[in-house]
Amino acid sequence: MESHGSSFSGLNSYFRALAQTPSRLARRACSVSTSHEERSQVRARSGSAMQRTLRWYDLVGLGIGGMVGAGVFVITGRASRLHAGPSIVVSYAIAGLCALLSAFCYTEFAVDMPVAGGAFSYVRVTFGEFAAFLTGANLIMDYVMSNAAVARGFTAYLGSAIGISTSKWRVVIHGLPDGFNEIDVFAVIAVLAITLIICYGTRESSVVNMVLTILHILFIVFVILMGFWKGDWKNFTQPANPNNPSGFFPFGAPGVFNGAAMVYLSYIGYDAVSTLAEEVHNPVKDIPIGVSGSVIIVTILYCLMAASMSMLLPYDMIDADAPFSGAFRGESDGWKWVSNVIGMGASLGILTSLLVAMLGQARYMCVIGRSNVVPAWFARVHPKTSTPVNASAFLGIFTAAIALFTDLNVLLNLVSIGTLFVFYMVANALVYRRYVAIGTTNPWPTLSFLCSFSCTSILFTLTWHFMPLGKGKAFMLGACAVIATAIIQLFHCTVPQARKPEFWGVPLMPWMPCVSIFLNIFLLGSLDGPSYVRFVFFSALAVLVYVLYSVHASFDAEGEGSFGQKSGEIIVRESDESDRGHCFFKV
């Protein structure tokens, strides 16, 4: 077999490798690793180990910091004004429950396989290298784009807090196209400063996050108390314009669920905590508490914030773009200063969400480097700081470069769809891992179930979003719900679980991950058409990179013994407690 250098040592070697692409794809694209390999051989490729310094309270703080950014100050008003009205409180509760179900899927994987790869590693041990690479590529793209957007949002909110217009510290370059012509140096400074912090140490990053998160929560509590103090209970049921729908549910059940779909994006961030599993002192205890606890606390905060906002103003008077600060900006009795306080709180929230997201993106890139589908240089962990310095610095500089000139709205249109796609993949991977022991059980019943359930969920989503109101729509939605329930029950009764989690597992299998699958498909259906065009473009670009580089680097690494696996070999790993008694089909 060829050595690693044979594919990339020269043009002739590379062209010979390209000619063998079909056979290499057949060998590597569906190759899977085991959780034992991810925790030992794969992790060893980073050289130095990441230190286990995080406790459950660190994870709770990081989870809260990652989720509660500035977005909640905007999304709450938009969802209430356009979809749910005062019942936005219920929308947040439903979205929080959905986030908790998805967080359970991440938690089971992270406890069983406490490595830094997060969703990339989870998909790699179930669906293989190509699916994992596609998942990882979308994750990295989403993280970089969203972090650049968040950094530019920081300067906007900070300017609002101190009373300085953003235009005064952004330089306009007239020769560049609109959306790319405003240079934001302060956004670059924020990104580079956080990059230095996360390179210095994970424990130190957690301490910084904890301080900022506590200050941010104090601002949120202040906003909640101000809303309940200055607000009026009648605003829960009476709109300002009597011609608009009234009551706590002015737009009915559809409004509540459409609102939940919109505000669900406020919960994105807990997935970054799973990438820190390799640095957790006691994964079995700390990860379930940290991930689930942070989602529960954030849900309570969001519901209280939504109730506070609904009391401040009737839903038809809420400023969709700045609901909280807008409620006080027009006050003439000395309360305008509250708007500045809200801007300062949002600025702190941006910093915490940026710090946690940059921690996560570096660890994703580190583990992708360990798998040899990108240069192994990204996998190196610094022996003194015990952090993936190469991945952190590279992505930090890349993020800063994008944040320097790209407009916030351009960036926001590029995110969300990839993240929801990854959540969908993780939920599917959990079902597959529970019901399929590779090499000993037939995977087709499980794959058929996942495909049929996803198709039913897609049909429900299309009916919900595009079919006009009437009996026909109600019949179609009811029929889809009955069919989906029957599919789950039939699978539950006919296909036994191939493995049971040793330490912590998602209860009520396969119902909980199936609810997560459905909800992610439903939320994907609420995104606009251009989002799908961009998703297809970036996914196609990722496929091109895999075909032209990654599959050959992975193939060469296997030939050098970095993977140590032969196609068709069946092995039993008695040394791994979590995999004991299961056979794995090595490809």
Description:
It is a single chain. The protein has 587 residues and is mainly alpha-helical. The chain has a domain at 54-238 and 245-426: Amino acid/polyamine transporter I (Up-down Bundle), CATH 1.20.1740.10. The protein is 66% helix and 2% strand. The protein is built from 24 helices and 4 strands. The longest helix is centred in the first third of the chain and has 34 residues, at 129-162. The model is unreliable at 564-587 (pLDDT under 50). Belongs to the amino acid-polyamine-organocation (APC) superfamily. Cationic amino acid transporter (CAT) (TC 2.A.3.3) family. The chain crosses the membrane at residues 56-76, 88-109, 121-141, 153-171, 183-200, 207-229, 249-270, 291-315, 335-360, 387-405, 411-432, 444-467, 473-491, 503-525, 531-549. Keywords: Membrane, Transmembrane, Transmembrane helix. Its main location: membrane.
Structural topology:
Layout: H1 4-8, H2 11-19, H3 21-28, H4 35-39, H5 41-44, H6 56-67, H7 72-84, H8 88-112, H9 119-124, H10 129-162, E1 171-172, E2 182-183, H11 185-200, H12 202-230, H13 252-263, H14 270-274, H15 283-312, H16 323-329, H17 337-370, H18 389-405, H19 408-412, H20 417-435, H21 444-466, H22 471-494, H23 511-524, H24 529-559, E3 569-572, E4 583-586
Antiparallel strand pairs: 1-2, 3-4
Helix pairs in contact: 3-24, 6-12, 6-15, 6-17, 7-13, 7-15, 8-13, 8-15, 8-20, 8-23, 10-11, 10-17, 10-18, 10-20, 10-24, 11-17, 11-18, 12-15, 12-17, 16-17, 17-18, 20-23, 21-22, 21-23
